Amino acid sequence: MKFIFFLILFYFGFKLISRIFYMFLLKKVARNQFNYQSNSNSNKKEGEVSIDKMPNKNKSKSDKLGDYVDYEEID
């Protein structure tokens, strides 16, 4: 009987603590996301476009693709 009582007490205690921890974690994540968005938007004007990474210019056209061969249909 004592075991069942402690088991039920542990279940409800864990449920209460997990809800409190979840709400704390959710608020912290929302605060961090708001700070990230406000920091990234404060440097830009509205309508301004920015490029974070430029593509590599070292792409060379490959001449090893082969020759173009004109063909004719044969009956």
Describe the protein.
The protein is mainly α. The chain has a domain at 1-32. 55% of the residues lie in helices and 0% in strands. The mean pLDDT is 80.
Write the layout of secondary structure elements.
Elements (H helix, E strand, L loop, with lengths): L1 H41 L33
Biggest sheet character: none
Nearest-angstrom radius of gyration?
Answer: 32 Å
N-to-C series of helices and strands? H
Q: What does the oligomeric state look like here? A: single chain
Kindly state the mean pLDDT as a whole number?
A: 80
Put simply, the count of helices is 1
Compute the number of strand runs: 0
Structural category is mainly alpha
* Residues in helix, %: 40-55%
What is the CA-CA span between the terminal residues?
A: 95 Å
Quick summary:
It contains one helix and no strands. With 75 residues, the chain is an all-alpha fold.
